[in-house]
Amino acid sequence: MLEDKDTFTLQELFDDLPMPLAELARQSKINEVTLARIRDGRSTRRDTVNKLLFKLSEIYSRPLSLRNVTGINVMVNKRLEKKEAKAQSL
Questions:
Q1: What is the pTM assigned to this prediction?
Q2: What does the alpha-carbon distance between residue 56 and residue 49 come to, in Å, rounded to a whole number?
Q3: Which domain of life, per UniProt (predicted)?
């Protein structure tokens, strides 16, 4: 059971998961290998992180997001950053 606090680590969420990783993969519609990579600290796309956090929020019955979960390595969208930097310089 997950303790009641303001922030959580991704490792805590995976450690306290009440189901096998394969079941989380099925329910979240995220490949099991991708979930293992996220758990192990590899970078992943923002939309994949959002899908995972949405499903974990349902499982733990509490709001989870990048604001209150640490240890998630979100891939940087270099194309978007370049576009935003160009727009700011105008």
A1: 0.83
A2: 10
A3: Bacteria
